[in-house]
Design brief:
The structure is a homodimer. By secondary structure, chain A is α/β, with parallel strands linked by helices. Chain A folds into 3 domains: 133 residues, NAD(P)-binding Rossmann-like Domain (Rossmann fold), CATH 3.40.50; 160 residues, Succinyl-CoA synthetase domains (Rossmann fold); 166 residues, Rossmann fold (3-Layer(aba) Sandwich). The longest helix of chain A has 17 residues. Chain A starts with a helix and ends with a helix.
């Protein structure tokens, strides 16, 4: 069902701004999905009216239980359905009677099962909805995430959540949870997103057209197993991808993956070669996994457009610097030696022994002494021979060898201060993964850097991979 | 200086088992390198005699200070030098007089500086050493790591250290520290290792020949920037790599990296194409970074030789399972659908709604219910259609949606119990990176799995990449 553009937009705008939500299938079982949806919305600060619908009567968290949607004595804009599949057709009929705008189905057991019963049940929902003006999201999905409006998907109430400019359309619910939780920890803040599952009614094209027009959304991430309306999707993607960077993770790129996709969301995956061609033509960016997507979302969130490929690297460990230079060059960057004059000035800041001042700069001394470190940063910030700067922190080497217990905090503060005056793109490589006793420190330093507006990557390889695509995007859209 | 084989081995054996060590250049400055070396050895449980050499007189940690090596009234087998470079020739002359077997130089400022003075000073050390029978390690290195004997490199006293079967030869000191700290956290345990820096005397060939003969060492990792004796190294590698899996990380693979290597250890890097050919001919395994090396060390430490490429995957999130299947197939594995009978049996354990039982299996229910989960594991453990099993844990999806707070612990216990009776290779994918509030839990679960003898990888991509090389190694050495 192709929407006329402005009416479709208006309709989605209404769906994303419900004045009231009924959660259907709530019980007093605190592990039950319905109760969890209800509490997630309350914790996340949804300010509209909330109506729990369930059989037990009485109250939950100060809200009166209604036995049926039709018993609610007020308008209901939006319904979150946690009922078992057999009860869903009746609910959709009630939604039609009640004048609900949209129903989101956590419920699964439809076309993704691969059997006729499931497919027919899904068709029944759709037919019933279309007998009125009710739109369906899912089934087999987690629904809408819209932090500025207090909407969240099941159980996902990230501590660090705040609104930002990244939108997402994810066919998978679990992946949506991972994106939101890992993403917010890494400094990705979201405008609006949807986990949309089987997409029997509203599908990726509806949502993509909406995000394309949405002023809050400047970057878009899509996790797609299969597309419902190929031509419409291609058109929407062509319209948006060169204006708002659009990152696509295709689930079911291989035989094994596409079989898994069929039983996950009932999707028929297209060949990955087709997707490569689509991305080439539309300007969308194809990635291989969720980490790559988040790495790119960070680049587009924190860095200004850039096209230069000359890296300046400051590290503290020689072996690591060698590998960092290798990683950069593997992704098409150069790490050109600094000019003789710049090297001479660096040598005023660090002794020749145990240091390198060629590019990468590696110097233990600088990592301990925030004053020297700041001076080196400023020197390279003003150096015309590189286009961007990477500070490569090995937490292990730093912490083990440092002379002061707070030297890491001081170094990170110095980077934050430098960020304010640095006109070059600046990023940090920092990982504390897997090292007993250093993870909390790593997480804390990462948060400080992010708060100072600096993108942080867990390895130079991942930074270079993201930056390669970031630079290519801006070079192509020139 | 090519060693005759057995005498070289005997000499190295002596160097790795010093009955006494003098740390030269110790002061009362607790941030000083000398004092740190001394304390690292004491904390790590070195049981031989330790002699601090420094100017202040008196005692440190109950040990008498000696003003000169020659003042020590007992034999000294091994010297760790933390003096500034200009003082090193005199020290080597003293070592000759004292009958020291080997000196390890933390000191830098030699050939790696790229200037004539540094090169000449290094040559002076070598000439002086060869006027006696003193061998040199380094300069510009961190030296020997040998946990069973209480030897450790600077500041590296990993909490979880114990002896194991992995040997390493690393030209970089910082990388050695990262390998030891991250490695032990991930369950890699070491036999013997060396950070060997500029390799002016004892070089990669000496150490490789030694590890090749060393009964404690079954797997070898090398980080190499440049090779001193090409033919000898090739011969040593040819002799060992098909008997003991030998993993090589080449620093300076690119123009930028090789320039960095020149200023790091004064090494001339060979073209990476040469290294690819060397590895093909010798059976060594070339990797691109330290993470890939550790991933492979884990495979060789925990898995029995295997050649099959059919994966059975158990996960809990549909979207993630789709991507896991994609990752496996990208690295040359298949994820074949389970037989109808096996699927029927899986359906007895999990409802059709919200689950997939095709391969990957994904089921929320199983991740919460350790009894159902154990049954599913046992079912697949006995299934002949796959060669190995991967349990793919999304900590976020599990923790967010779980009905019980201890369900992750229970799931991990179930995997540990299953490991005891499972004849198929078994591994776990588990990551808690970057998620505020989940990292400690992730680290704890990882330790439990490792203690149960199960290799753990932070992503399916990294698991598949390591396993691909692991399977290829065994297929080729057949």
């Amino acid at each position: 069902m192709v929407q006329e553009d402005s009416s479709g937009r208006q309709e989605l705008e209404g769906i994303f701004h419900p004045r009231s939500i009924a959660v259907v299938g709530v019980s007093l079982d605190e592990a039950g999905w319905g109760q969890r949806y209800l509490f997630s919305l309350m914790q996340f600060g949804y300010r509209g009216n909330l109506f729990p619908v369930g059989r037990q009567g009485g109250e939950i968290a100060g809200l009166k239980f209604y036995e049926s949607l039709l018993d609610i004595p007020a308008p209901v804009d939006y319904v979150i359905c946690c009922l078992p599949a057999p009860f869903t057709p009746r609910l959709v009929a009630d939604c039609v009677s009640k004048g609900v705008k949209a129903v989101q189905f956590f419920t699964s057991g439809f076309s993704e099962t691969g059997d006729d019963d499931g497919r027919m049940l899904e068709q029944t929902l759709l037919d019933t909805a279309r007998s009125g003006r009710v739109r369906l999201i899912g089934p087999n999905c987690l629904g809408i995430y819209y932090p500025a409006y207090g909407l969240t998907i099941l159980n996902t109430v990230p501590r660090l959540a705040r609104s930002g400019k990244v939108g997402f359309l994810f066919q998978s619910g679990g992946n949506s949870q991972e994106l939101i939780e890992i993403g917010t920890s890494r400094g990705i803040y979201f405008s609006k997103g949807v986990s949309y599952g089987n997409a029997c009614d509203l599908n990726e094209s509806d949502f993509l057209e909406y995000l394309a027009q949405d002023d809050d959304t400047e970057v878009i991430g899509l996790y797609i197993e299969g597309v419902k309306q190929g031509e419409r999707f291609f058109k929407a993607l062509s319209g948006v991808a060169r204006v708002k960077p659009t990152i696509i993770l295709k689930g079911g790129r291989t035989v094994a993956g596409s079989q898994a996709a069929a039983s996950h969301t009932g999707s028929l995956s297209g060949a990955i070669s087709v997707w490569r061609a689509v991305c080439r033509q539309t300007g969308a960016i194809l990635v291989n996994d969720l980490d790559e997507m988040m790495d790119l979302m960070i680049a587009f969130s924190y860095l200004k457009p850039m096209r230069g490929r000359r890296a300046g690297i400051i590290g503290i460990s020689g072996g690591r610097s060698v590998q960092s230079a290798d990683s950069c060059e593997s992704y098409g960057f150069s790490v050109p030696p600094f000019s003789p004059e710049t090297r001479r000035k660096l040598l005023e800041l660090t002794p020749r022994e145990g240091s390198s001042i060629r590019n990468p700069v590696d110097s233990y001394l600088m990592s301990w002494d925030p004053v020297l470190f700041s001076r080196a940063l400023r020197l390279l910030g003003g150096y015309g021979g590189v286009d961007f700067l990477v500070v490569d922190i090995s937490l292990i080497v730093s912490v083990l060898n440092s002379k002061r217990s707070d030297s890491m905090e001081k170094q990170v503060e110095a980077i934050g201060d430098f960020r304010k005056i640095c006109s070059k793109p600046l990023m940090v490589v920092l990982s504390s993964e897997g090292v007993a006793g250093m993870m909390e420190l790593g997480a804390e330093l990462q948060q400080k850097l992010i708060s100072a507006g600096i993108p942080v990557y867990p390895s130079m390889k991942r930074a270079a991979c993201a930056l390669d695509r970031f630079v290519s995007y801006h070079a192509e859209s020139r």
